[in-house]
Fold this protein.
Amino acid sequence: MLKRYLLAPGPTPVPPDVLLRMAAPMIHHRAPDFTPIFEAAKNGLKKLFQTGNDVIILTSSGTGAMVASVNNFFNQGDHVLVINGGKFGERWTKICSSYGLSVKEISVEWGRAVDPDAVKKALAEDKDIKGVFVQAVETSTGVYHDIEKLGRIIKEHSSALFIVDAISALVAHDLKTDAWDVDLMVGGSQKGLMLPPGLAFLSVSEKAWEMNGKSKLPRFYFNLKKEREGLHKNSTNFTPAVSLIIGLEEALRMLEQEGLQNVFARHAKLAHATRHGMKAAGLTLYPQENPSNSVTAVNAPDGVDGQAIYKTLREKYGVTAAGGQDKLKGKVFRIAHLGYAGVFDVITAIAAVEMTLKTLGHPIKLGSGVAAAEEILAEAK
């Protein structure tokens, strides 16, 4: 028997209490018994997003909310700025371009965070920029961008909307939507929110709603004006993923019970222990600055294929992590500590990596990384 462990940056493990809630008999999404569930979920999301704005719930992958962030607020030819530091920054460019927006990119070296001064310079050079798009966590590189500082710069130097893909950052990082002047914050169910894939979330500021009224881009399923009207009636425009919303209510209850600040601290500690353990095992981290609390990207040792590490972890030791993407394929592997994650997920991950490297013939002292991580994880809060 090979026991399986899911330590990828999405989907992430789902807690038993959430699974049990979702296994309850199906209810109708227009029936009165769904109303309090939906209302609790939408209010819980506002607390998590730290916003007084509406948080739209969409039945889609997180990318659906990314698309909705473009085709509900802009017009063809609008100038927008995209911070591209990895595969998901690249996705913003592709979405914006597909709707005919005029995209200017700030290309960030993979493994680094964007320099806020580069954003300030770009805004000064083009006063017509109407939106700035960025990832909070660039999942492909494991880098966190400083959303607080970017929000301050955009507010001071532009009237542009600030749009943040927080799909991999929500729950792991303390993201203050309103305090940091984020106009559109995107989330997804299968990451820190400890649910299966299938729900996307989008908080929308009043400033963004004003632009929504001027946007003429085509939309049908992702019509946020219609979704907002339904939200205020505890409903959705189309049939929602009923079971996932039931699970969402339970997941949000669990997070609130733990306390959001405790949730953020837990993720920070797990991430710190993972990074420290990997380095103690003789490995190096891929991010050169601002490593995220969601996922740790680790360089494959010289002479060892990163894809072989990923494959051996899964096939021999039952640990599903993630490989490198695009130009990082074969060069890095990624371990998540996100959502329903605890002390022994980190221990399992580091031990599995050490055993995998030993299997692949790389010289390593077994237990060196585990011991280092244990020192951190055993510390009192």
